[in-house]
């Protein structure tokens, strides 16, 4: 425009028009130049202002965007605990989804969160996700929800494969937390339908679960189903069966299982024999238990502390305490160190045979080697010594009892006072209590 004005100027300079016309033209040119300069200055000022303000505008926009994203990621919808991040179109990685469930504060909202997640295009379930979901539902005690999840997994067209660890966890929850042992069994036998075959680890867990809950009639049925699952029976499995049969009192069947070891290509171990000895001792068949002990040694199986404790307890229940003490020394000679349970079994044997003074002396030996007698041991010893009016011995046992952190009850104090005051006053014990 400036060039255009510059080109016009010579024309008006050399024009022969009247002075008034020239004056008018000059005014127009001046206005035009002024307007043009003003426009240029205004544009320059505007550009400078925009360049100065642009970083602030961008920073404000970025800050607003970050604030909005942060709120969306950490906030919750008004009517649920489900993070609103699931409403965004951003692609969520498996780790991000996993973290959503791991950090979920309210486990009761697990299923609603899963429903919201499953409606997304990027929904890709896997074993890690389902493990967290199952654990959250167990925490909420929503065991019906776990069953729904298991059915959902079965119906899904999976691009992944679940491992035995996943099912082992579900079985443990059903058995130990929910008390739904039948569902634990069903899950074990349903594993092949999920394209996962169990190992003897899961199989033995279910067997032991049944034995611990005293469902002995079901143990055999599950045991017979091992071939359907392709399970190879091992020594642990047979030991569980022996434990179950001894628990229900069928010792003959338990010994038949002992004969099954070589047929299954297994060898019995110390736990096998200890379980059988415990079953025999509980029924007073102590001689048979010692015969089994000798058989075990002949087969080259070394007894452990549990084995000796079982036999010492069996001798004590029959009043053969001296033999129990001898067996304690024999135990040391065989290089097997006794534990607190060993000494406690000998002490109970002495108390059961009413050898209270010997029990007090044996207590002294226990205290010297750092073994603490039980509360019941102190109580029974004090009662026995009081009945025999052995005041000094009662005093020693009482002091030991308090030093080991036990507090005598009112009945014990009455008996101790009665023993202490016996023969030392003409007043009766009841009169002293009244005063």
From TrEMBL:
Keywords: Repeat. Pfam families: PPR, PPR_1, PPR_2. PPR repeats lie at residues 234-268, 269-303, 304-338, 374-408. InterPro entries: PPR-containing_protein, PPR_rpt, TPR-like_helical_dom_sf. Transmembrane segments: none annotated. It comes from Camellia sinensis var. sinensis. Belongs to the PPR family. P subfamily. The keyword Repeat applies. It comes from the Eukaryota. The keyword Repeat applies. This is Pentacotripeptide-repeat region of PRORP domain-containing protein.
């Amino acid at each position: 425009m400036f060039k255009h004005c510059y080109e016009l100027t010579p024309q008006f300079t050399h024009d022969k028009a009247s002075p008034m016309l020239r004056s008018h033209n000059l005014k127009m040119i001046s206005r035009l130049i002024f307007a043009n300069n003003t426009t240029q200055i205004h544009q320059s000022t505007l550009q400078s202002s925009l360049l100065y303000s642009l970083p602030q505008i961008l920073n404000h926009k970025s800050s607003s965007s970050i604030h909005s994203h942060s709120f969306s990621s950490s906030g919750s919808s008004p009517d649920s605990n489900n993070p609103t991040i699931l409403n965004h179109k951003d692609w969520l990685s498996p780790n991000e989804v996993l973290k959503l469930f791991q950090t979920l504060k309210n486990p009761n909202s697990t299923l609603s969160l899963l429903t919201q997640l499953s409606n997304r295009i990027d929904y890709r379930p896997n074993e890690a996700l389902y493990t967290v979901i199952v654990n959250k539902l167990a925490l909420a005690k929503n065991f019906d929800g776990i069953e729904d999840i298991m059915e959902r997994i079965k119906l899904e067209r999976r691009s992944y494969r679940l491992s035995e660890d996943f099912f082992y966890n579900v079985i443990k929850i059903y058995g130990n937390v929910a008390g739904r042992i039948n569902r634990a069994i069903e899950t074990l036998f349903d594993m092949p339908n999920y394209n996962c075959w169990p190992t003897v680890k899961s199989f033995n867990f279910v067997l032991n679960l049944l034995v611990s809950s005293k469902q002995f009639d079901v143990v055999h049925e599950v045991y017979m189903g091992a071939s359907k699952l392709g399970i190879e029976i091992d020594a642990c499995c047979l030991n569980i069966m022996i434990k179950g049969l001894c628990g229900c009192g069928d010792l003959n069947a338990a010994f038949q299982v002992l004969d099954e070891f070589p047929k299954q290509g297994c060898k019995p171990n110390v736990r096998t024999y200890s379980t059988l000895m415990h079953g025999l001792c509980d029924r007073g068949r102590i001689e048979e238990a010692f015969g089994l002990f000798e058989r075990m040694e002949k087969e080259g199986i070394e007894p452990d502390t549990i084995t000796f404790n079982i036999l010492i307890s069996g001798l004590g229940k029959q009043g053969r305490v001296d033999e129990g003490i001898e067996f304690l020394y024999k135990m040391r000679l065989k290089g097997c160190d006794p534990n607190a349970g060993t000494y406690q079994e000998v002490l109970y044997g002495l108390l059961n045979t009413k050898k209270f003074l010997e029990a007090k002396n044996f207590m002294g030996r226990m205290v010297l080697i750092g073994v603490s007698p039980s509360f019941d041991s102190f109580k029974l010893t004090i009662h026995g010594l009081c009945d025999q009016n052995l005041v000094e011995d009662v005093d020693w046992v009482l002091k030991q009892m308090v030093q080991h952190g036990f507090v005598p009850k009112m009945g014990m104090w009455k008996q101790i006072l009665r023993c202490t005051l016996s023969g030392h006053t003409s007043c009766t014990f009841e009169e002293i209590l009244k005063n």
